[in-house]
Specification:
single chain; 260 residues; alpha+beta; two-stranded antiparallel sheet; 3 helices
Length: 260
C-alpha cells in the first residue's frame, strides 16, 4: 500500500494539470427579438431564430453567468445545449449559428406567452430589434451588434429535442470572457436568413421544466493553487503515464524485495 501511495504522489507531481472541472453555469438573461417591430420576450418561456412564412426574421440573445469559473482557468471544451420545442411544419433542415455579441444588452419584463412567435410589446430595458435597452440605447446595427463570423453552427432538422453547439469558437469566446469578465455579452442565435419558413422555437431560461432550459457546459483546468469545485473528470494517462507507473511500481517492488 505504501508503494501504491508513493506512486500516486509521484504521478500527481508529474501530471498536475490533468484534473479538470466541469461547470454548468446558469443563463443570466435571454430574450427573443423580432425584425418587424420592437417586440421582445424578456421573461417569456421561448426563444426563436430563423424566418417566418411572412419573411420576418427572428433572433435570440443569451448570456451566462461565468463567475463560478476561477480567473486564470484554461478552457478546454464548451457546449451549449438548447431544447427545440417547435419547428416550422415545412422545415426539412436549417443551419443555426451562434455569434458573439459585441454590445451590452438588457432583459426586460415583456412576456409573449405561448406560442410566443409574435413577441410582446417591449417594457423599459427590453432588448429589441432596434434597441439593446428599450427605449434609450440603440444597437449600432438593427438586429444586434455581433461578430460577422459565427462561433459555432449546428443543423436543426424537423424534430424537436436537444441540440448542441460546440467547437473552438465557443472555447475562444468563453476563455475571453473569463480573462475579461466585462466583455461577456453572450451570444446571438441567428438562423438561415436567406431562406423562408425555417423558424425554430427553443425553450428559454424561464422554461417550466428545468431540464429544458439552456445549458452551458464548460470544461476547464483550474489555475495552480485553486481548488476544484465541480465534478472531476480524470483523463486517461496514455502510454507515457502507464510506462512511468510501471517503472515506479517495479522499482518499489524490487526495493521491497531486497529489503525483505
Amino acid at each position: 500500500m505504501k508503494a501504491v501511495a508513493l506512486a500516486v504522489i509521484l504521478l500527481s507531481s508529474v501530471f498536475p494539470a490533468w484534473a479538470q472541472t466541469v461547470s454548468n453555469p446558469s443563463a443570466a438573461r435571454d430574450t427573443a427579438i423580432y425584425s418587424e417591430n420592437d417586440n421582445s420576450n424578456g421573461i417569456g418561456t421561448y426563444l426563436f431564430s430563423g424566418v417566418t412564412r411572412q419573411g420576418d426574421f427572428r433572433r435570440s440573445l443569451i448570456a451566462f453567468n461565468l463567475s463560478g469559473i476561477p480567473a486564470g482557468a484554461t478552457v478546454t471544451d464548451v457546449t451549449l445545449t438548447l431544447n427545440v420545442s417547435l419547428v416550422a411544419p415545412v422545415l426539412s433542415s436549417t443551419t443555426v449559428s451562434l455569434h458573439e455579441v459585441r454590445a451590452d444588452w438588457a432583459e426586460g419584463t415583456s412576456n409573449a406567452g405561448s406560442p410566443g412567435g409574435q413577441g410582446a410589446a417591449p417594457t423599459q430595458g427590453d432588448a429589441t430589434w432596434n434597441f439593446r435597452s428599450f427605449s434609450t440605447d440603440s444597437w449600432a446595427d438593427p438586429g444586434g451588434d455581433f461578430a460577422n463570423s459565427p462561433s459555432a453552427s449546428t443543423t436543426i432538422i424537423n424534430l424537436t429535442g436537444p441540440y448542441d453547439w460546440t467547437g473552438a469558437g465557443l472555447i475562444s469566446d468563453v476563455q475571453g470572457w473569463i480573462n475579461n469578465p466585462g466583455s461577456n455579452r453572450g451570444w446571438i442565435l441567428v438562423g438561415d436568413e436567406a431562406g423562408l419558413q425555417n423558424a425554430v422555437r427553443y425553450d428559454s431560461r424561464e422554461a417550466v421544466n428545468p431540464a429544458d432550459r439552456p445549458q452551458l457546459t464548460v470544461t476547464y483546468t483550474a489555475p495552480t493553487g485553486v481548488g476544484q469545485t465541480g465534478p472531476i473528470a480524470v483523463p486517461t494517462m496514455g502510454l507515457p503515464g502507464l510506462l512511468l507507473l510501471a517503472l515506479i511500481l517495479g522499482g518499489l517492488g524490487m526495493f521491497r524485495a531486497r529489503k525483505d
